[in-house]
Amino acid sequence: MIKQKGMKVGAVSLWLLLLLAERPMYGYEIIKELEKKFSGYWKPKTGTIYPALEKLEKSKSVTSKVEFMDKAPDRKHYAITEKGQNELAESMIHWSKMAEIIENHWETHQAVFRHKSEITKNDLAKVFANIAKSLQSTSSFEMNKIIPSAKKFSVKNPTEPVEFKFLYAKEKSKEGHDKFEIHLELEWNTKPSKT
Question: Which of 2, 74, 95, 192 has the most other CB atoms within 10 Å of its CB?
């Protein structure tokens, strides 16, 4: 179960509670219903669904009852509890707000471009030199002139001050080697700030 601030249940648990709010179901039936609802885009695995159901049962959000079968494996039926209904209602409010935020900021998200590639130290030095040249120019600059493989779009030259963020970190890789990361962020407005 994924826990986040303001959210009692994660995405998988939320779907389980939504389905069980419709009617009680047994495990295999839940998996088939989820496959149907996602039209094959998500094929839930038993290794994901059953542990999530167990956690919901431990937290008393769902209850279960075993149906003993004569000529087939026994079935464990799950039903949502009152506590589960309350968690579902709270989580739906949270997820609705998240969806609204994403929808309202979709245009902004579409304007975010990321570039990641492996390059030589010499090429990296050229990228930094190109950034420096672009910052010193008086008009706008093209991103693909800084990083040739980047998307082509114009950036208006920074107004002062430029917000500068520099994050550096060292960690051990899986192989036991030191791994270093540097994240550089420059942020500015296109209109001068009023002082």
Answer: 95
The residue count for the chain = 195
- Alpha-carbon distance of 25 to 11, in angstroms, equals 19
Model pTM score: 0.48
Residues of the chain with CATH 1.10.10.10: 11-108
Q: Are 179 and 170 in contact (CB under 8 A)?
A: yes
- Residue 186 has phi, psi (to 5 degrees) of -120, 135
pLDDT along the chain (195 residues), means of 10: 45 91 92 87 88 94 88 88 92 79 63 74 88 78 75 73 84 81 80 57
Rounded distance between C-alpha atoms, residue 95 and residue 15, angstroms = 12
Tokens describing residue 192: 């001068």
Is 52 in contact with 37 (CB distance < 8 Å)? no
Nearest CA among 3, 80, 47 for reference residue 11: 3
- Alpha-carbon distance of 136 to 161, in angstroms, equals 14
CATH architecture of the domain with residue range 11-108: Orthogonal Bundle (1.10)
